[in-house]
Fold each of these.
Amino acid sequence: MSEPESDVSQIGRDYKYGFHTTDEPKFSTGRGLTREVVETISAQKSEPAWMLERRLEAYEHFLTRPIPDWGGDLSTIDFDSIFYYVKPTESEAASWEELPPDIKNTWDRLGIPEAEKKYLAGVGAQYESEVVYHKLQEELVRQGVVFLGMDVGLRDHEEIVREHFGKIVPFRDNKFSALNTAVWSGGSFIYVPPGVKVEMPLQAYFRINAENMGQFERTLIVVDEGAFVHYVEGCTAPIYSSDSLHAAVVEIIVKPGGRCRYTTIQNWSTNVYNLVTKRAVAQENATIEWVDGNLGSKLTMKYPAIWLTGEGAHGEVLSIAFAGPGQHQDTGAKAVHAAPNTTSVITAKSISRGGGRAGYRGLVNVASGARGAKSKVVCDALILDEESRSDTYPTIRVHEADANIEHEATVSKIGEEQLFYLMSRGLTESEASSMIVSGFVEPITKELPLEYAVEMNRLIQLQMEGSVG
Amino acid sequence: MSRARAEKAYRELPLPTSSDEGWRFTDLTGFDPGAYELAAVARPAEIAPLFELELAGSARIDESGVEILAAPDGAVFAPLGQKDKRIGTLVAVKDKIGADNAAHWRHGLLVEVPAGVELAAPLHVRIESTVAGAALPTRLLVVAGENSRFTLIEEHVSAAEDLDAFTNCAVEVEVGAGAKLELVTAQRLSRETWHFSDQRARLGRDSQLDWVCIGLGSRKGKTRIFNDLAEAGATSRVTGIYFADGSQHLDYDTYQEHAAPHTNSDFLFRGALRDEATAVWRGMIRVEPEAQGTDAYQENRNLLLSRQAHANSVPGLEILANDVRCSHGATVGQVDRDQLFYLMSRGMSASEAERLIVRGFFAEALDRIDREPIREALAAALGTRIP
């Protein structure tokens, strides 16, 4: 336990990933975004012409698209000061030893090589704009599983990428999907062949190191018929006084009978704008699960979406958000029922404290003809002090009579009876509060891989210490 | 807002479109407020009352003016003066529709019950749209003095079943400290009427407002219900009951503003939709930082009775205080087939069974209506909507 006078309640001050190194990048486009920057990124990657065309179209759209006037305050993003492309190393390494010492040291401090040995089937590590390390277990390679950095994925599997890229999240979807499409770099490309079940998770780790960095990774996951994969991503960044921008796009297709689970532990430092578009399509009897943990960032706007396009498809979103001092977590989920007998379950929990603002923004849309569709949404929020705020903005649209849609949400403080009971058993108030909050988020943490669940509980305890009274 | 400024706003503002917040699911394409003119002469017709009640006061408003049929003792129940300074203090002009009312309203009713006065029987005002092609912009100003108690029933009706008209009503309600006000708003306009209603109540210390809002008629429009729990200890309960069929589109936009400590609000809206009818329900519970001890609830349940009907439900919570209990629930579903099968296996016709299930669906909302004649009349009116 920490000393009583140290204020560990501020996650920002305890943020153990806030360090940075001063390594020299191999190449950078400098600050700001122009048509030339887009062309330079494409040229650096020796891409096919169609991708450059797509980038330029998206760039033009980005310029014309207004900044969203809903969600969080985006007026403070200085698009001209951002570095849109920074290349840290010459090429992707297949062993940690090949990396420059500063970068290897960063991954060691984050514990990634250690985790890889213990419980991961494959690891990708992205530093600034590029994937610097990538490896997949031999056995999975033999079974035809593809797990690559997106750039390499485009080079080696151009047909699959071309078939799906931008089909699930078109660049016209929103301003930040347009930005991502224009300047994307890095991210993961995953293909799981029919019937192959990848038992251990594949992990991608995203690290921003430089100040005013813009990270725009692009991920495409194709899970073929009857296959399964669990993909885990983690994100951290150093603490700087000025802001960085992370605007990713994730597209997932789960073919008939397949299942994909996508777990995110977002722990950006509190100077990062995190504006991410994530959408998955589940075909006949397929399952998509988003487990979305948002602990860090200055502002997150992220609503993982499920499109249930095949009969019997099922989708789940488990979302958890913590907003501490200076943080705004505008998170949520979307479920679109476009086929009969599709089901979705959305469970969202949020906690705000120290002036933080956490919210749920969601959509459940049942299209005409989606007979027998069922959806249940439950949102619960805890507000731990007078300065904090919680918002709930769900939208429910039902165009099919043969559907059952339920939504419920509750906002409250920690129950005094619970607190009293635990304290009468000898716990201090902060221990008791911590325990109640851990219990509150348990339905979600129990779905996390063990290591993350432990980490999540540790973070909750840190957040809670000295924070209530 | 002066008439001149309102007229200017009316001329300059465009009609709300589906990209305007609050209008996403209500498309006003095909509606031209300018096409409806004010009429000086009304064409009243015999309109059957929805319920029989003994009344303490009664009035009717149509295109030609206000008629006070019976005035209560000890309270003001009179045409609303154009110069009354309280007009516009609660309902502000937010869009072209609001500007239309502020610029063009001619007839209104003032209901003012002094401090301490209790009226045993309800007051009743019927706003009758009687002229085809005419606009009927009206206002109500209701002032419940401290510790007063009374009931006001406000009805919106048409003189003919197919009357094409545009009604636009602004209702301002001031509930004084300790007062207890029951409001019943019953809308059964023709299916060709564009109906807009902007209703806002401000609740004083320890006051109570019990509001029943019924929507059976109209073509399309928007009904706003804003409760401002402005002072400590205020309590409001709003019960909404709606039924739409054919190509009707009903839109309820509600707001529970908790601005003071220890305030309670409880909004419950239930609606059934048949044929190609659509409904929108939007709700927001907003708890300001100083409103500690708030207890707020909102619920919207929709029953879809046919394949083409659809419902949009947009509840919301914005909570800026921590010592609160706020929750909401929304559901959309269809008639339970097992229930239907069970009832029909007992010898009921499909219509009878459906009617019974619909009655069950509305039971919780109907049970919140204390006055039996209103409750029974409404239950019967709902029943007749199932062929």
Amino acid sequence: MVTDPLLKLLQTNARYSNEDLAELLTLSPLEVASRIASFEADGTIKGYQVVIDPDAAGDEDVCAFIEVKLSPERGEGFDKLASRIAKFDQVQSCYLASGGYDLLLVVEGANLQEVAAFVSQKLSTMSGVLSTATMFRLKVYKENGLLMRQEDGDKRLPVSP
Amino acid sequence: MDYSSKISRQVAAVPRSGIRDFFELVQGKDDVISLGVGEPDFDTPWHIREAAIYSLEKGQTSYTSNLGLVQLRREIASYVEDFFHVSYAAESEVLVTVGVSEAIDLALRALLNPGDEVIYHEPCYVSYSPSIVMAHGVARGVATRKEDGFSLKASELAKAITPRSRVLMLNFPTNPTGATASREDLEEIATLCIQHDLIVLSDEIYSELRYEEEAHVSIASLPGMRERTILLHGFSKAFAMTGFRLGYACAPEPIIEAMMKIHQYSMLCAPITSQVAAIEALQNGAAAVEHMRQDYQRRRDYMVARLNAMGMECHSPGGAFYVFPEIPDCGMTSKEFALNLLDSTNVAAVPGDAFGESGEGYLRCCYATSLDDIKVAMDKMEAFIESVT
């Protein structure tokens, strides 16, 4: 878990201004800017993205989770093959995982055919890929810690002792 | 019918709560940003709610023992030992109540004979003085001062002690000031209590919500104090479980036995669903409590800095989730200031005099509200102050 207070705040809301962050952390905006710059420079911060509810956005893209079994290479383990797979644009996320398979991929495409083509033509034909199992995403309930359907807002009495 | 002759003198003597008047005003308005709330803005952590739902699914809907579920009392005893460093027997020295409010009422009724005096520090939670009066006691408030961070000083306490003094009520961290008590101050207070044979009713409901390095000290943990202290705690604040209405009292067996007598004939037992939820809270809730505490701390720091910058002078409170700033010189009472603020900015904060006379001149601002709302409220308050001073 991230423990740096600045990173923690950015993780909950990457759009906090430097002034906001400075107030929250009792730093000066300049100090905040320089800390962020150094996090970016050393690669701790990889980027800033937005979390979108695909239903609300009318997004018709298809998303699949793919379990991949690999045969590890001598001297390289899974790293070389995994990085090759991760470089495909269709692959949104790529993790090495314990359990019955080796890699877990999150793959996106405009439609079923596009994902199917990626799996059958690119992924499963790579040497070292032993097998794949594809599961299509049906609905998003929570993404990056954010519930897609928020519970009702403040239900408290406006004044209480 | 003339109802005034039908209501008991004891109850008639208790004035209507100042907070209730203010509540009715605020409720009539739309789009109010309220800093007037006395409870967490977090929902109860999901794992705790889920445990409550599961217990209902299983059909756990019966009465429990008057004292509370044995498993819960064991969890409480072990939590209290870890957190407050005082040990109590789960079987006989822990009573589960419907919030700390019920426990206060039980304790006062169990301890007081008509005319006995109860000392408490002011500004304080709104129920203290009424609970004392309704238990046929005499309420003796000791004003605490801004210069002391609203903590109770033994020298001030000493002046209020008379031969009729029986009980001292403490509440650190304090609602509405966020005051905390240092170990040294508590030791001096403890010496006086032993000297004058006072029982201490220590309401420590905010004890997890501390923001300075100094750890919370319970007066019950000081030498010679366990035998004369009723330690009151509960789940409302730290675990964000206000609506579950669950608290507890820890004290020597004869006192718990006396409190239990009243509890069993008036309440019977605390709701079982809440008790089951509380077991989950104690077993697995620590991370959620710490997460909320850190969030409160951030908001406190922000609010204290903004208030001081706009001329609403306040100390940085060491606990709870309230800031108690002094109203700047503008010829208004607390009540007038709060009403004008509400009228012209839609920001609600509770006038300090709702917490006792010594709260006059102050305002209670609660920071258990989203940071975004706090920011807007502070901007509006700043503009308001510029316009009236």
Amino acid sequence: MSTKPPVQTLAEDLQQGRLSRRDFVLQALGLGVSLSVVGSVLTACSGGEGEGAGDGPPAPGADPAADANTLEKELRIYIWSDYLAEDTVPNFEKEFGVKATVDTYESNEELIAKLQSGVSGYDLVCPSGYAITVLSALGLIEKLDASRIPNLGNIAATFRKTSFDPNDELTVPWQWGTTGVAYRKDLLPAPPDSWAIFHDKAHAGKMTMMDDMRDVVGAWLRFRGHSLNSKDPAQLAQAKADAVLAKANLQSFLSAPVKAQLISGDVRVAQLWNGDTAQAAAENDQIAFVLPKEGGSIWLDAMVMPKTAPNKKAAHAFLNYVLRPEVGAAISNATGYGTPNEKAAPLLARPVPFPTPEEMAKLEYIQDLGADAQAWDQLWTEIKAG
Amino acid sequence: MSQHLPPRWVIALTSFVYVFLHAPLLVLVVFSFNDSKFSTSWEGFTLHWYERLFERADLLNALKLSVGIGVGSTVIATALGTLLAMGLARRRFPGRAFVEALLYVPVVTPEIVVGISLLILFVAMGFQMGVSTILIAHVAFNISFVTIVVRARLEGMDRSLQEAAMILGADEWTTFWRVTVPQLWPGILSGALLSFTMSFDDFVITSLVSGPGSSTLPIVVYGMVRKNIEPTINAISAVILVVTALLLWFADRVGGEEGAPKGH
């Protein structure tokens, strides 16, 4: 979750008329973007509504299961590593007679780059919220046909009408989580309740924050009561000062791998996702999670369908399949994160309760920073070097 | 012997280099037997991660694909590279020096540049990224390595045996298979081993030209880094280490025997 690609900035400049088409093409090529990508961005920006008519919607009232005979024989999924249960895909293949392949990526940026090449060949991909904003701005994803996904109703209202899909037409929410503080109950006198714990010299050298610009700077923005998507220079300067102060007490900036040190006790307090904390707690029950009173970030990864998807019917069938309560629950049991499916949530082995309205008020989605990404990058470099 | 023992600092330096090279591998193997999913401290002995290997269909499929692409690209690149080396050594033609110089371009060019250029080419040609594009890419960078290695072997080779075979009535084809290839064998084998290794652990180029259903082992492992590297990865690495060591030992023996007649 770092910066957005420069191409995106260019595309925005182009849309808002800050850049002529010719300059856009030249600059984009300078960035090493292939011609076909440039072409596709230009097409997307020209406002041509060439909606891929492709396969028309099914007859009203058609039973989606009866549709199975007409599904394509293949489905290609591109998703985060360890983001499916082991039987999710095999069971789908058996039931629907579709051969599915699964490939994995390591960052949203890698996924965006793959889709930008224009010939990715994937039917379904699973970016984080802010990356969906980028992909839809680039015109790379297609609206879903809700009539083919009757199980969409299983998604909790909390995870609908999100900032990156305000009309609920692009996404099927997949997994969600929050960023807060993981701590060792036995090694702290009292549970922390604020980001201020990272300013406490008593735990110097025994604490970590995540190796992620958005989460670290975001936490210190929240600490002072600001939005974690703030672009205000004064607020950012204050967040930087707070981060530098905390850094003196940190062992390192470390994300998911900190689980090992929490288990061994080398680290007592760590900024971490709730799902990873739950995984570590399964090995050591002295590990607990708290959402600081100032609030933190909530993230939601969602399935979207690239415009170039070759197997659109199979993709819709898969989305409807994973929204079944038992399939959704199995996925979340495997990942350790929360399911946005309200019928699946009660079936989880280790329940991850939906955020309460009070908590939701303290939680914020990380959003694309647009042109301000560079200022953030600069700030983060200074924090890490300073 | 003992009076020729090297100076102490040489022994110290050598030991340091060996520890530096091999300690990480040792740690990797030791932790493949560690009884904890996350911990970096020793929690007890287990064979669980080796059992898990058989449950992780994604890892096994990736391993199969990596071996398949490795073998496929090695066979093609070794055949083409050997022929190219022989052509360059035997024939005089205009621009030969230029062709030879071109051979080194893929070797010295940074991988990321090779990868991007292949990606742009494939996109421009409208190729669907996948196993075939990875195979083409691996053959492309392996040809140079094979040619350079086989070329080196050809330089030191005595041509009189081939001439003798021809004088004694063997045609070009028979001479090639019965005399030249056995003489060249150690060079061909090292070229092939080198290209299999390059193909098997390539990440940068592969990830750029990969597509649906073409996740090789390095790509799958890299994808796991963000969240958690399960010790299953250690287990599969340990298996690969042992298999590679056996292959090398085998290649060394075969290469040694076949190469032996040269001395006579």
